[in-house]
Amino acid sequence: MARTTGSDDLYRLIHSLTLVEKSYFKKFAARHSKKGSKYLELFDAINHQREFEEALLKKNFQAYAAMKVYLFDIIMQSLLVFANDFEKQEELMRQMIYGKILQRKGLFSKSLQLLERGLEAAREGELFGLEEEFLRLRVNSAQFSWKADKIKQKRLEYFADLEGAREKQVNRDRFMKERMKIYLIKKSQEYANKSMGISENEVDLAFLKDEHAALSAGNERLRLYTLYDYYMTHEDFENAYAISLQVMQSEKKLTGAHNPNATVSSFMYALKLRINSCFDTGRISEVGGLLDKDWKRLPEAEREKPENFNFFFYMKALYYWMSGKHKEGERFFEGNIDRLMTPEYFEHYAEHLEVILPIEIVLEFSNGNYRKAILSINEYQRMNIKKSHTKYFKDCELMRILIQAEMGNYDVMEPLIRNTLRKARQLGLSGLELKFLGVLKKLTNYNTHPIFNELFELFRKSEEKVDILWIFYLRDWIESKKSKTPLAEILRSRAEGGRKISK
């Protein structure tokens, strides 16, 4: 029978209970209700229903409306007593209730002991609202032990502590508000949408730069995160890098001190900020040290989690490409790709295929494994994962042309170029890309030197950035061919050149 009229909250509560919770409730109800048997009958009747049928319950139980309210209340009481898996805030709230009960019973000394422990825990966890409440309760219990000549001083100390807790909460709220402003500015930039009503002038940068504004370790972390977001939004990568250093140093101190504010997730986030900032500012060799040393500060179990290992794999692969360590990079892929394709890891790895697989392709290309690179391109195209299908397809076709040029298959390369030029408008080829293909089309066994000189001059005179698969810069390839220097060597020599990675 379908549900009849009336609220089904009680029905859903009863059916949400585990077998252990139901068993405990029946014992609890028998002890705490003189009419427990009648309420247990209603409990059993609802528990046996497959679908909520209120009309039948009203027929079988007199005063049903009042009974269901009482039954709901007594179930909640039993769950409160039964619960032993409270979160920190809930545990402190229960401790607060115990402190109030002891105050009412006149046991002020015992109440003060509980409240002092709760206050310390609230401060350590930076639960500022609970800290305020514990301070109020503490003064209620403590004032009975104050000496007359100390009352004024004690009350001043109490109000100073209370104001300190409030100020920390106010500043945390301000940091969060500023971070939201920066987020909205970033979204406005991404979508060219100025209708969100947030101006860069509204960001309180002076407040964010005030090192004394945080008042707590957690607030300081939030302040630095917000400053980092601000600099990244404005593409001020050097200042973002400086903030990432502060974040990393702060997390290392917290971890070393076994502070409650130190968590694996926070250290992981700090490491991500630092590594991303190194790439943004061209500090490529520094990335290697972070991945080899600081990554190992994380517990092994955390490093092996799919979401964390996926990050490590991506950063390590990118490091191998940018530092010119291409052979090591390809071996790294070969050693881990099977693991990444298992269901457990692939769930997290698949989200980043559009940036990870291109690194594999360009590493294979740089190492001269051209046939392998073509197979990887085919696999990449089959996945069709790029958000911009046009650019994704164009990049793959340009990469195929470069592979044929490297292999000296000019007869194959020429029709590939002709077909790509024919689809220029559809693919969205830029003016520089059109000129590049027009010059490359003339390449033969006998004119490689003048052709690459011409391409070098073409790119030297233009400020336009041309990349393939988001990571492979045509300028680097042309330079390597002109100077007859391996591409890996070109990248290795620029590892500290300050070139930004744009993803």
Question: What features would you describe in this structure?
Answer:
By secondary structure, this protein is mostly helical. The protein has a domain at 9-82. The chain is built from 27 helices and two strands. The chain has helices at 9-16, 19-32, 36-48, 54-60, 64-82, 88-104, 108-124, 128-142, 151-190, 205-209, 217-233, 237-256, 264-281, 284-292, 300-303, 306-322, 326-340, 343-349, 353-366, 370-383, 389-407, 410-422, 424-427, 431-440, 448-460, 474-483, 487-493, and strands at 467-468, 472-473. Strands 1-2 form a two-stranded antiparallel sheet. α9 (151-190) packs parallel to α11. The longest helix is centred in the middle third of the chain and has 40 residues, at 151-190. The radius of gyration is 33 Å and the shape is elongated. 30% of the residues are buried.
Quick summary:
With 503 residues, the protein is mainly α. 73% of the residues lie in helices and 1% in strands.
Name a few traits of the molecule.
disordered C terminus; mainly alpha; 27 helices; 2 strands; two-stranded antiparallel sheet
Question: In what range is the share of β-strand residues?
Answer: under 5%
Number of helices: 27
Mass-distribution shape:
elongated
Uncertain residue ranges: 498-503
Rg, Å, rounded = 33 Å
Structural class: mainly alpha
Describe the sheet with the most strands.
2 strands, antiparallel
Residue-averaged pLDDT:
86
Q: How many E strands?
A: 2
Q: Which strands sit side by side, in order, in the main sheet?
A: 1-2
